[in-house]
Amino acid sequence: MSRRKTRVVKIGSIAVGGGNPVAIQSMTKVKTSAVAKVAAQLRLLEKEGCEIVRLSVKDNEDAVALRRIKKMTGLPLVADIHFDWRLALAAIDSGVDKIRINPGNISDRKKLAEIAAAAVARGTAVRLGINSGSLPEGRGDTVSRMVKGALKYLRILEDYGLSRMVVSLKASSARETVDAYSRISGLCDYPLHLGVTATGLPEHGLVKSSVAIGALLLRGIGDTIRVSLTDTPQQEVRAAKLILEAAGARTFGHEVISCPTCGRCEVNLAKIVKDLGRAIAGMPVTGGRHLKVAVMGCVVNGPGEARSADIGIAFGRNEGLIFKSGVPAGKVKYENCLAVLLSEIGKMGRAG
Ligand code: SF4
Question: Residue whose CA is closest, atom 8 of ligand 1?
Answer without folding.
Answer: 300
